[in-house]
Amino acid sequence: MPLSININMNQDTIAIIGGGNLGKSIAQGLLKQNYNPEQIYVTRTKVELLADLKAENVQTTSDNVLAVKEAKILIFALKPYRIEAVLKQLTSHITPDHLVISVISDFSIEQFTKSLAPTIQIVRAMPNTAAAIGESMTCLASKNASAENIAKTKFIFDALGETIEIDESLMDAATVLGACGIAYALRFIRAMIQGGIEIGFDAKTATKIASQTVKGASELLLQNGNHPEEEIDKVTTPKGCTIAGLNEMEHQGFSSSLIKGIKTSIETIQK
C-alpha cells in the first residue's frame, strides 16, 4: 500500500480502548496487515469477549491505564456516553508523545482537547460498518497531527477499506453520506429484491442478482472514475426498458426522496 511517508508501523504499540464490534474490526484489520499482535492492546470491561483476539496473541485487558502506558497510538472506540468518564481516568497518562485517534461519533476534536493537553495530536476517524469485511469508507480529520502520524492513521484504516482526508466541519456530513449511507444503500437493494420477486425470482436468487449488480455498479465508478450518468448512458437505449424504468422512478420521486432523506439525517445530527 503506497504511503507518502516511509513509516515502520511495527515500531508502535497500539492500544484500542473499547473492544466492541468496531474496535475488534480495527484489530483484525491490523492482523491481516501482518501487524505484530503482541504490539496491539485491546481493552474491554468484559475481557472474556476478546478471547478470539487473545488466541491470536493480541494483548487483551480490562485495564485502560495499563494499555495507555504501554502504547504510542491510542484508538478510542467507545460509546459516546462512556468517553468522558474514561478520559477523566486516563488524562494524566496521555502525553504529547501519544497519537490519539477517535472513532467516536458525535464527539469532536474540540471536546477531546477539553479533557487533554492542547498540544495532543488528535485524528478523528469516521469508518462505517463495512469495516468488518475490509470495505469501509473512512473519513479522517486532524488537529496538531504530524504528516507522519496522519500517514500512520491512514495505514490503520486502509486495512479496513479506503480512507479520505476531510475538514472536521464536514464530519457530520461524512457520518450521513458514509455511515448512514450503508443503510440507504441496503434499503435500495432491499427494494430491488422485492421488485425482483414481483417479476418472478425467488428471494435468494433476487438477493444474489441485486447485490452483485450494485457491487458491479459501484466498481464501475471506482475503477473508471466516471460520473454515474456516463455509465447510465451505456445501458439506456431509445425506447428501451431501462430508460422507461428510470423515468418512472423519477416521476415517483426516487432521487428527490433520497436527497431529502440525506438532508433530514444531517439536520437530525445537528439539532
Outline the secondary-structure elements.
Elements: E1 14-17, H1 21-32, E2 40-43, H2 51-54, E3 59-61, H3 64-70, E4 73-76, H4 80-90, E5 99-102, H5 109-115, E6 121-126, E7 136-143, H6 147-158, E8 161-165, H7 171-198, H8 203-224, H9 228-235, H10 241-251, H11 254-269
Parallel strand pairs: 1-2, 1-4, 2-3, 4-5, 5-6, 7-8
Antiparallel strand pairs: 6-7
Helix pairs in contact: 7-8, 7-11
Domain Pyrroline-5-carboxylate reductase catalytic N-terminal: 13-104
Subcellular location: Cytoplasm
Keywords: Amino-acid biosynthesis, Cytoplasm, NADP, Oxidoreductase, Proline biosynthesis
Order of helices and strands: EHEHEHEHEHEEHEHHHHH
Question: What CATH architecture of the largest domain do you see?
Answer: 3-Layer(aba) Sandwich
What share of residues are in beta strands?
Answer: 5-15%
User: How many domains in all?
Assistant: 2
Fraction of helical residues: 40-55%
Q: Low-confidence runs (pLDDT<50, min 5 residues)?
A: 1-6
Instruction: Determine the mean pLDDT.
Output: 92
Structure report:
The chain is an alpha/beta fold and 271 residues long. The chain has 2 domains: 9-166, NAD(P)-binding Rossmann-like Domain (Rossmann fold), CATH 3.40.50; 174-269, ProC C-terminal domain-like (ProC C-terminal domain-like fold), CATH 1.10.3730. It is built from 11 helices and 8 strands. The chain has helices at 21-32, 51-54, 64-70, 80-90, 109-115, 147-158, 171-198, 203-224, 228-235, 241-251, 254-269; strands at residues 14-17, 40-43, 59-61, 73-76, 99-102, 121-126, 136-143, 161-165. An 8-stranded mixed beta sheet has the order 3-2-1-4-5-6-7-8, with helices on both faces. α7 (171-198) crosses α8. 31% of the residues are buried.
